[in-house]
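User: I'll paste a sequence; please echo it back and then give the predicted structure.

Assistant: Echoing your sequence first, then the prediction.
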Amino acid sequence: MEQPLVGFVGVGSMGGAMVGTLLRAGWRVLAYDIDPDNLAAAVAKGAQAADSAPSVVAQCDFVLTSLRSSKVFVEVAETHFLPNARAGQTFIDLGTTAAPEARRLAALLAQRGADLVDAPVSGGVGGSSTGTLRIFVGGHPDAAERARPVLETLGDEGRVVYLGPSGSGQVGKAVNQLAMGLADAAYLEAVAFGVRAGLDAADIVQAMGGDGGWRQYFGRIAGRVAEGRGDEILTKYPEHGFFLQEADERGIPAPMLRALYAFLKAGEHDHVDNMGRARPSLWHELMTRDVQTD
């Protein structure tokens, strides 16, 4: 049975894949993207094209977004959503946004009778294409329940989890990203310590890697270094600032996150992550910097 029309702003690699999943499930999608190629690709899948973000807001009760950064989402929300929102609308942010900003924007939209559901996802383009994303949901319980049919189209069974009031979904995404990023950084630092002290990365894989537990994960990281792919290992740096906004607002120490962010911030931002955002390579920084000692 055909589902209602939903709006989707930001149909790049992740958003475009999610649009395809929604269309296959019977949803009708009104799409908009500032990149005409992205919009054309969504239309080729069966979406309708809008000529602006306000046009999407005007025509849809549900407006989904998948934007590349917290800054971009805040700009779009302030410029296009807040002035045009109406009572009963539900905005669903599927990207990674600073939790304090999610709470602030939710409060502003509530003044207009609309709701913001923060529902950041994990699973990449593959999960977006197959409807198997993990989705971390925050917002008013009633709004989250209204959004559930859309989210469960995009999310893996049992992995669309309501975590609490506005901002809670973004906090959940922070936990998800830090669990990966800090672990990658720790193992990468261990490998760099060995290599800079004279060991061969391939020998490290053989000696310390294994088939289970931490040795298996460590072996994967060391193996990528041995293959010359250390620069590809991500530590979620472009999102660290979002997470630190929440840590600062709540007085959370986050010592490893703060140290890693400060170390990378001083590095060369000449690589990009899977979202096309500029980042330094932790491997490069670990292998090229020298500590000044007395």
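The mean pLDDT is 96. Residues 168-196 form the longest helix (29 residues).
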